[in-house]
Amino acid sequence: MATEVAEHLEVHRHPEPTNFWTKYIFSIDHKVIGIQYIILAIVAVFVGMALSLLVRLRLVWPDKPIEILGTLFPVGAPEGVMTPEFYLAMLTMHGTMMVFMVLTTAPQGGFGNYILPIQIGAADMAFPTLNMLSFWTTFVSFVTLCAAFFVQGGAPIAGWTAYPPLSALDEATIGGYGQDLWLLSIAFFCIGSLLGALNFIVTTLQLRAKGLTMMRLPLTVWTWFVTAILGLLAFGVLLSAGVLLLMDRLGGTSFFIPGGLLVNDIPIDHTGGSPILWQHLFWFFGHPEVYIAILPGMGVTSHILATFARKPVFGYKAMVYAVVAIGALGFVVWGHHMFVSGMSPYSGFVFSVLTMCIGVPSAIKTFNWIGTLWGGKIRFTTPMLYSIGFVSLFVTGGISGIFLGQPSVDLFFHDTYFVVAHFHLIMGVAAIFGMFAGVAFWFPKFFGRMMSEGMGKVHFWLTFLGVYAIFGPMHYLGVIAHPRRYAETTSVDYLGAAGANEIHYFVTMAAMITVTVQCLFLINVVWSLFKGKRVTSDNPWEATTLEWVTATPPAHDNFEGRIPTVNHGPYEFSVPGAPRDYVMQCNAPDAAPARKSGE
Amino acid sequence: MALLLAVLIWIVAVGLAYPFIVDTWPLPDTITEHARQVDAQYRLTLWVTGIIFLLAQLALGYAVFKFGRNRPGAAAHVRGNERWEILWTTAATVLFVGLTFMGYTVWAEARFTESANRAPDEDRTIVEVVGQQFVWNMRYPGADGKFGPTKIELVDDALGNPLGVDRDHPDGKDDIVVPRMAVPVNRQVELQLKSKDVLHNYFVPELRIKLDTVPGITGTLRFTPDKIGTYEIVCSELCGLGHYKMRSFLEVKTQEDYDQWLVAQAEFLEQ
Ligand code: HEM
Ligand SMILES: [Cu+2]
Ligand SMILES: [Cu+2]
After folding, report:
1. Is B155 an 8 Å CB contact of chain A?
2. Which of A1, A157, B115, B124 could form a disulfide with A88 if both were Cys (CB 3.0 to 4.6 A apart)?
3. Structure confidence by residue, pLDDT tens digits, A350-391
4. Domain spanning B121-270: which superfamily?
5. Handedness of CA B73, B74, B77, B81 (dihedral sign)
């Protein structure tokens, strides 16, 4: 094994680039690619937030003119008043932007790319050129998606789930090329993600440093690894589904369009397809996708909680098994998105039981996070605050899943704001807190400077309160049966009567404040790049894993040819008898006094 | 810092749970036995998850508070605790899976419509519900109790035939098509859900049920309303730009009022 690793090393060491283009743009260095993914996500998240503000504004003031909108979007917002189709277009693009371009890029392609090879003691990813291709394919996907705003007909209105026949038939919408571009974008995205997934899997299996057994991997690496497996199995399905739908739209096929439709009094000459088929394919991808978004955040959280509680991760093995269980179960619960589609009630029941089973490893993770804090000596750094915030948000978002996983209760809550609250808390903000934590934690390694703790803390307090203020009340909207994807509340009497407008008003206010607060994060990043306190050590957080033994920022080949040997588990904090309160993975075997067997 | 964070977590958790506890925004009214069973299942889930939620958030805050203050000595070098881990894994499994099994009969009630011991009532009221962008049409079979065939070519909104019912067919002659739904109280209703174009979803909050109307497929829902009144039917599956205004009404009437209503509709059809 040892010689094998050494050979790989030679293979994967590539000469340092000498010109700007190969160094920063078409780089094959995993570190540069990681940063590129993160920048892409930051751009996308600000676009996505701007879109969400438009959505929130229209919900509260459906017919109030906003002059600048009229100038920017003469069709979508004539005289500044957003049309219902404009609302849906913004909503669709918001969801797509966030789910794909943010939650599926930075956590895996960004942090995973940068950190994983270093944490396992590799000089780069297994396939550096493929890595570059993944990023640029994803970039093309992003550009294609943005183009949908500007084509005839504007952005698509069928939601991020793009259910046909609405998404398949131009007769049912204002038509145009928006939906086609959306599908193309998704197809590119799937390809980019598939390439990336392959790379992550091979790298993790093949390029680990000597002594780094699977059960010594940091939990971050475990989650990136399992995420990659999920991606490999899920994106292929979405890719095929997307291509089929594109064929239905452009090629006259009928995979998802049944016969005998009459849309807007126009007879449709498709026949024989099934709209439900799309739902199966989409959610076969879609449920694993939600874990693709959150697993890396879980890994980062476990990692950071241990580091700043100065304690080993509580139940490391259980954490690993839980991640694997979530990954496996994640492929057999997709039907819980379809309880109301008219599926056989027997299938519904099976999906329900399996869904509840997936709640169990999620609960294990939560308890173990609290267990990690218990008995620790907590250091309240900014990354730690974000990680503690993550745990709180994950609990809140996960709890509502227990309601939705029961078909009897879901028959009421499905497609209401209750679901919107659920998935935003657990997938949206929890995952984003994972990213905030990741940025704050690894920033000193990336750039050799610390981020401002002051700005970071203010940002944390305001954002933590802000996201609860936005998404908490959405549960109540669900309880009063407010359907989602409604451009306004005016056409249903019970909504206004039950107080929906007041809740919407509160949420919109909270959203405007919270979105503004996010500028503070951006300012902190930029300010710290130039003015942040320079790190005085390669290991400013006194952490244990391999990224903290490399130079800061790491050299082109990460370890300058001296790959460390791993002698310890990933979270050896506060080992009794050790000279310091942490033992790094690469420290000499006797750095930590031998433990009794059974450990 | 420790105290501040702990208190913040507690405030947020209790603040979020409080309106659920005092029912600030109550669920809509219930008009079927089934809806009340759903509510019972919902309340049970609320209790179970509510307790887990509060305990978890309180424990998180407490850990932050207790172990975040300066104290002498090192952090405990604890790698886990098998007993506790087994305990909470078992507890979570039993509770979560248990909830699904407890909700099983409620789910069966709503959807296992074909099973032998749940044979539909003989005297049920059958209504066909057809979604289209962005209106609902309800069809009653008329005196003969049979729906006539429909043809796309016959669809003509101006002529009052939005579904394309073949009026020359003996079964179709007396079919009544209306934009609102009326049903008699305390008798089983069977809905046959269809769509002309895209997906829609038939949702009446007071029934606690929703079902997609899928083009090409007929979905079935049965319920027995026991409260007279008018309730809103809202579309709950994104169907296009008018999704938010795709609404109709479900009127639950006394048997007499319902019969009169039917007669009036039939007379209207004659004209
Ligand atoms: C405790 C574990 C969980 C359970 C039992 C659960 C259950 C459910 C169920 C049953 C639905 C469908 C609700 C409906 O549409 O009526 C749902 C929706 C959703 N869940 Fe979860 N969930 C869990 C965890 C997660 C996690 C960890 C994520 C993401 C990181 C997530 C993201 C989503 C998303 C995005 C949707 C909505 C998709 C849409 O309709 O647009 N869930 N969840
Ligand atoms: Cu799911
Ligand atoms: Cu509709």
Report:
1. yes
2. A157
3. 999 999 999 999 999 999 999 999 999 999 999 999 999 999
4. Cupredoxins -  blue copper proteins (2.60.40.420)
5. positive
